[in-house]
Amino acid sequence: MAKKILIIDDDPDVVFALRMPLESSGYEVHDAHSQETGLAAVDTVKPDAIILDVMMDTHTAGFQLAQKLHGPTAKEEHRQIPILMLTSVHQTTPLRFGPDEDYLPVDDFIEKPVDPKVLIGKLEKALKK
After folding, report:
1. What CATH number is associated with residue 12?
2. CB burial class (10 A; 0-12, 13-18, 19+) of residue 114?
3. pLDDT at 97 over 60
4. In the chain, fewer beta carbons within 10 Å around the N or the C end?
5. What does the alpha-carbon distance between residue 8 and residue 96 come to, in Å, rounded to a whole number?
6. pLDDT tens, 70-84?
7. Selection from 39, 13, 27, 29 nearest residue 112 by Cα
8. Which residues are CB-contacts of 64 (< 8 A; sequence separation ≥ 6)?
9. What 3 state SS string does 33-65 have?
10. Domain residue limits at 92
11. What's the pTM value of the predicted model, to 2 decimals?
């Protein structure tokens, strides 16, 4: 049975660009386009991994959703789902951040524009945890 990947990103072009290599690699891909619909999709899709954009409804929507899914008040079943954070923040601003158990509870980062080989490699690594 194919692993289910949930892409949460408000840009349909990015979703399409991610969907192609994921489906070509045998993954079942679902998508949501906001923090709110993404959180609902986690419960309905029950993904094996999440690819989460940083900036959607707000500049920090991805950070907030990561906290809801992996933070101290998160459901236990949500904490088990690996999150790969998709961002171009490092390329467009001087801000630097990385996974942090308390502040930014994600498994890894994927920089935009996405290299399909990097995407699949990081996803496979996250799914093995």
Report:
1. 3.40.50.2300
2. middle
3. no
4. N
5. 22
6. 988 999 999 999 999
7. 13
8. 35, 58
9. CCHHHHHHHHHHHCCCEEEEECCCCCCCHHHHH
10. 4-128
11. 0.89
